[in-house]
User: What shape does this take?
Amino acid sequence: MGETAKRILSAAFLVGFVIAALYWQKEAHALLPLLLIMLFAVGAVYEFYHLTDRGLEGRAVRLVGYVATAGIILSFYAEAMIGSGQGGEIQALLRYLYPGQSLLGFWLLFAAMGALIGHLLFRPLDGTIYGSGVTLAGVLYAALPLAHAFPLLFQAGGTFYLLLVAAITFMTDTGAYFAGRWFGRHNAGFKVSPRKTIEGYVGGYIIGAISALGFFYGFQSQAGAASTGLFQSAVEIVLFSLVFSTLAIFGDLSESALKRDARVKDSASIIPGHGGVLDLIDALLFTLPAAYYYLHFKAVIF
Assistant: This one.
């Protein structure tokens, strides 16, 4: 089977899993979306620590990073559940994860201080600054952005928002991939990814916008205007897709820079046709939190 076929089949499987998770988000306390985000977050942090491992010159205190990752995901999950009025009989448990205020600061301090303590107790002094820094950086880069899926999802129109962001992100990448292969002639000029072409990126923007409009009209025709939440204009959807396609491109290039620095082609090889978890979600790490804050500030201002 060729790489293109593997890429398409892997993407189809993952898209199906994501849609299933969203479909059952209100069943069993949204445990399927929680499991999905947790797996992606831990996998992405693991791969980040692998990319940044410099042996005796410094490496992350991995256990601290994994605990902080799980803590942040659970904290955002609990806050979103309680804020949306869900949780039912597990409200008391959720209060330990969200006691009325965000525990994000606690988990970031835990990662920073835990890494330093880990170096003091179990590591040589050489590499302390680097190892402590990448421990925290992995949590900030790979875990915190994914945690924003929960406040985005558990609000009016949340399913549409999450699918819209995912569609723009992944279809921009898909459109750029195939347009670049079929029509690519002019190099885009990015040293970190010299094979990317202007034609590929143009194709990514076009496919991203078409996908966004498809989701917009599809949701409105099936579930009414309320299903698309704060999005009620096709013009806004197109402008939103153009901005977020740009963010997706920079998310992809940023991970390429990490891999170039680590001198590897892929962050891992567990997903056929894509590579690792980071290779799959690199663009989403930029678009997901940006979408949440865009909608948050739009709701506050307008």
